[in-house]
């Protein structure tokens, strides 16, 4: 695992953006696995800036997002499709047809998960998967549990995750209780994984995930078994490593 410790959130975002930009330069038709959450927003901003300066071209890039809330329309301002449009896709020249997010409004979420697995397979897998980390060690929406889930599946969100994400909704009652997420196997099959972490409140879980035992009770701990992980964090998040 390669680890970068940066001064602050902005430097973390730039470093992570460099890693994505390098991928796009070296392989213009790469498959990017993308993530939502507040942590990667700065990285997306930086990529948009470089695109606008003429330094990056996303015209052949394909993307697959990790997860989506079940029941939210793509136009809902808390859906992950909406997040990706407003924080990245609407500002760069990626072909909308090449962007993939599970459909929150799918009538049959389990069938939607199966379709999504096929999408990832048809793309030939993921070149670099961006990951943030929840306070309980979740990646995507793979919550702590007794086993690692394999491919894209429907999950019941844990109370702590509902509470953490409630700040983005009008009220806690509005937070969806279920989501669709890539599984641990889908994530682990990515050829490279880029983990971004920021802030003191992530220091304990960063330590548990990267220096503790590999266990489904800390889903991110499985990343210790991946041969090509880059962990980029600001010094606050990395302070207990
Ligand atoms: C959500 C997302 C995750 C994300 C996590 C952490 O639950 N499903 O993909 O990594 O939140 O978010 P943040 O970066 O805001 O701490």
Distance between the amino and carboxyl termini? 13 Å
Strand content: 15-25%
Can you give the mean pLDDT?
Answer: 96
Describe the sheet with the most strands: 7 strands, parallel
Q: Could you name the ranges where pLDDT drops below 50 across 5 or more consecutive residues?
A: none
**β-strand number:** 10
Kindly name the structural category: alpha/beta
Secondary-structure element order, N to C? EHEHEEHEHEEHEHEHE
Tell the overall outline.
globular
Sequence of strands across the biggest β-sheet: 1-10-9-6-2-3-5
What is the element layout, followed by pairings?
Layout: E1 2-6, H1 9-26, E2 31-34, H2 41-52, E3 62-65, E4 67-69, H3 80-87, E5 99-100, H4 109-122, E6 128-131, E7 153-156, H5 159-165, E8 178-181, H6 184-188, E9 192-197, H7 203-211, E10 229-234
Parallel strand pairs: 1-10, 2-3, 2-6, 3-5, 6-9, 9-10
Antiparallel strand pairs: 4-8, 7-8
Helix pairs in contact: 1-2
The chain binds 2-amino-2-deoxy-6-O-phosphono-alpha-D-glucopyranose.
2-amino-2-deoxy-6-O-phosphono-alpha-D-glucopyranose binds near residues 37, 133 and 140.
Short description:
With 241 residues, the chain is an alpha/beta fold. 30% of the residues lie in helices and 17% in strands.
């Amino acid at each position: 695992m390669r680890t970068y410790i940066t001064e602050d959130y902005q430097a973390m975002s730039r470093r992570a953006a460099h890693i994505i930009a390098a991928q796009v330069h070296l392989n213009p038709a790469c498959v990017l696995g993308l993530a939502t959450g507040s942590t990667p927003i700065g990285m997306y901003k930086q990529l948009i800036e470089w695109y606008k300066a003429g330094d990056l071209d996303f015209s052949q890039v394909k993307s697959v997002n990790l997860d989506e809330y079940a029941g939210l329309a793509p136009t809902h301002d808390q859906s992950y499709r909406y997040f990706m449009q407003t924080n990245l896709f609407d500002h760069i020249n990626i072909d909308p047809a090449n962007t993939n997010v599970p459909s929150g409004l799918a009538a049959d979420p389990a069938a939607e998960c199966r379709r999504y697995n096929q999408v990832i397979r048809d793309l030939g897998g993921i070149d670099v998967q961006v990951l943030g980390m929840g306070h309980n060690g979740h990646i995507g929406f793979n919550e702590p549990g007794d086993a690692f889930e394999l491919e894209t599946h429907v999950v019941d969100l844990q109370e702590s995750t509902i509470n953490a994400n409630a700040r983005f909704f009008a009220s806690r009652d509005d937070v969806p209780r279920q989501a669709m997420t890539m599984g641990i196997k889908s994530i682990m099959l990515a050829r490279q994984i880029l983990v971004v972490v920021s802030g003191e409140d992530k220091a304990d879980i960063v330590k548990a995930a990267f220096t503790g035992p590999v266990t489904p009770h800390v889903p991110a701990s499985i990343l210790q078994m991946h041969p090509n992980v880059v962990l980029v964090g600001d010094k606050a998040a990395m302070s207990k490593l």
